[in-house]
Amino acid sequence: MCINAQESKVFMRKLWAFRFLSIILLLTGCAVQKHGQTPAITVATNVTPSFVIPDIRERMLYLARQEWELFGRPEVKYNIEPPAVTYPSEATQSHETQPPFFSRILMYWRTATDLPIIGYEGEIRPWSGAFIVWLAVSGKGRCLISTKTSPSSR
Questions:
Q1: End-to-end CA, the chain
Q2: CA distances, 22 to each of 9, 12, 27, 33, 140 (Å)
Q3: For the segment 81-95, what is each residue's pLDDT rounded down to a tens digit?
Q4: Can you say whether residue 81 is alpha, beta or left, with left for phi > 0 and alpha for psi between -120 and 50 degrees?
Q5: How open is the CA angle 62-65-71, to the nearest 5 degrees?
Q6: Quick one: pLDDT band at residue 110, thresholds 50, 70, 90?
Q7: Quick check: is 13 in a domain?
Q8: Angle, nearest 10°, between helix axes 99-112 and 56-70?
Q9: What is the residue range of 102's domain?
């Protein structure tokens, strides 16, 4: 059986495409972290990292500060009557139900529970506990609670 020049070119293109795809898949497979496996920080267990790895407390503080910044750094002033929430002059003031903030609050809520965040009268349920759960889960890097529960779901 004889192969003509055109068939030979097609075969060579397919062979090069197969080789290229094989190399890409090999490189991707080496770079992808396996499910449930902690990422390796150093190449060997006896090597000390050249940077400080923050502990859970530091990560939680960083995340809490980050969220505080995203919400405009609000502060409650108790030395005035009635107490009021104040913002720095350069901060954008908004309400928790507005789009940039409500999506964050919903993210905290969904981390903690599957219950609806909107109450029976159309109000947003108190979400500070959900924020703490989100901080703990995000700071730890894995889920600290086995199932999503809340006192009202028991």
A1: 76
A2: 20, 15, 9, 19, 36
A3: 999 888 888 777 778
A4: beta
A5: 140
A6: very high
A7: no
A8: 150
A9: 56-153
Residue 6 maps to a domain:
no
Q: How many domains does the chain have?
A: 1
pTM more than 0.70: no
Contact predicate 101/95, CB 8 Å: yes
Structure tokens given for 45: 């267990």
Is residue 118 within 8 A of residue 124, CB to CB? The reply is yes
Q: Two tokens at 48?
A: 């000390």
| Closest C-alpha among 120, 110, 118, 106 to residue 148 | 110
Please state, in angstroms and as integers, the Cα–Cα distance from residue 81 to each residue in 74, 85, 93, 95, following that order: 17, 12, 20, 21
Beta bridge partners of 118: 124
* 71 falls within a domain: yes
pLDDT, tens digit (0-9, with 9 covering 90-100), for 136-150 = 888 876 544 544 555
Residue 1 lies inside a defined structural domain of this protein: no
